[in-house]
Amino acid sequence: KNSDFVAFAQSIADAAIANNVKSIDELNGVVINGAKVSDLVNDKLASIGEKIGITKFERVDAPYVASYIHGANRLGVLVGMSKESAETGKDVAMQIAAMNPVAVDADSVPASTVERERAIVTEQIQADPKMAGKPAEMINKIADGKLNAFFKEQTLTAQVFVKDNSKTVAEYLKAAGDIKITEFKRVALG
Question: If you average pLDDT over every residue of the chain, what do you get?
Answer without folding.
Answer: 94
